[in-house]
Amino acid sequence: MPKDATGVLSEIKKGYISKKLREGLRGDGRKLDQFREIAIEPNYVPRAQGSAFVKLGRTKVVVGVKIESGEPFPDTPNMGVMTTNVEMLPMAFPTFEPGPPNEESIEIARVVDRGIRESKMIDLEKLCIEPGKKVMIVFIDIDVIDYDGNLIDACTMGCVTALKNATYKITPDGEEIPLPVRSYPISVTMVKIGDEILCDPDLEEEQMADARLTVTMTEDGSIRAMQKGNNGTFKIEEIKKAVDISERVGNDIRKKIVG
Amino acid sequence: MGTPSNIKLIDENGLRLDGRGDEELRPIKITTDVLERADGSAFIEWGGNKILVAVYGPREAYPKHTQDIEKAVIKARYNMAAFSVDERKRPGPDRRSMEISKVISEALSAAVMLEQFPRTQIDVFIEVIQADAGTRIASLTAASVALANAGIPMKDLVVGCTAGKVEGRIVLDLSKEEDNFGNADLPMAVLSKTDEIVLIQMDGELTKDELNKGMEMILKATKRINEIQRKALSEKYTIAQNKEEGE
Lengths: 259, 247
Description:
The complex is a heterodimer.
Chain A: H1 11-22, E1 38-42, E2 50-56, E3 59-70, E4 81-88, H2 103-118, E5 128-130, E6 134-146, H3 151-164, E7 167-168, E8 177-178, E9 186-193, E10 196-199, H4 203-208, E11 211-217, E12 223-229, H5 236-258
Parallel strand pairs in A: 4-6
Antiparallel strand pairs in A: 1-2, 2-3, 3-6, 5-6, 7-8, 9-10, 9-11, 11-12
Helix pairs in contact in A: 2-3
Chain B: E1 28-32, E2 40-46, E3 49-60, E4 73-80, H1 95-109, E5 120-130, H2 135-149, E6 158-166, E7 169-172, H3 176-181, E8 184-191, E9 197-206, H4 208-246
Parallel strand pairs in B: 4-5
Antiparallel strand pairs in B: 1-2, 2-3, 3-5, 6-7, 6-8, 8-9
């Protein structure tokens, strides 16, 4: 995240967080693998074909899914199309600026997209209406409206909820068809501070983190997407540990958001 | 992803399409000091990949708000030539190349002694002349050589490789076909001496055991690739020395 007068973490606060971590506690009293409170309101935007309002602690995102007919890509004539876009709105944080997506928001969108795509959550083949000519296109658009860390997980949860409840029509007066959904990917983002690995970093933890790792898994225990971020490093054992954490914590989250 | 029935990626003898075994790398060649103007440069040929890397800096960071008062900022720009892939790629940055630029910048930042050059930027310009799977890792491997060639103080070289899953098997250094039709792709890069992971990404489908196997395979391979990097760097100076002796 960009640094400026409002984005910089004070040394006192840093010291406090580090001290607490050595006692196995986090600044806000959470356990290392504990997520903040998750509150998701499905179908928040009835005008969209699928939607969700996600609160992950103080981070807030709105996910809207629009499904329209269009042309397939030439190399996948029998498959529907899915796109993911993240808008980090200037209202969400003092240093967010309007304009075309920057590196940060592109990375977030691509990591979220990868998790959903590689999990084969949407059965894209079922979205083919006429091979090579007409398929359904699933547009996933995410508005970040309040930023307090861990956008990747908030966005993934929102997408999963929105897609799970999404319906579409092939013709304007046709019947509502539920989007063909096969699995529920859950991403778990962790950061490394010192030697500790923390789940669901808030803004302060994100700002002082050495390195970040996202692991997205499906209910069958397979790993579908991973992404490391920031300048720090991980040991191979830490990656293995992070995958175990993602599986365990991810299963709990999945129970919460899809039942 | 997913294998079309008409392409068989592993034959009855267990060999891959290009005749390699599971842990066999494609040929890799790195040369340094290939550009005149740049402070440091490297050219890597890895399988069919041909990638040029130029380093400029450390120089004053511009625009000013990108300056870090405590250290240098690495700005890598990964770019694919329009003619580098089968179908012409529209020139200029796209979402994929911006993501790759970001992860490469971050990976290199772990190796360079940034704190020695506050308020500066180090530009790393990467041009993919020909792409043949594994370009981000080949670029990163060459970029760390180019940084060393520029004389920028570094803790270590960054070296990477990819692993992936092809017809249920974990194999090293995916080829173009394996990348397109395989079941998983795992690019990873480490600091050569400490094995600390500076870049890891994954897409596809892997079990925990498969991931562990892939990571171990890559780690082993980076030792070999690191030797090629070191040779490329030392060669430049060895030649100069021999000349002197001949005179």
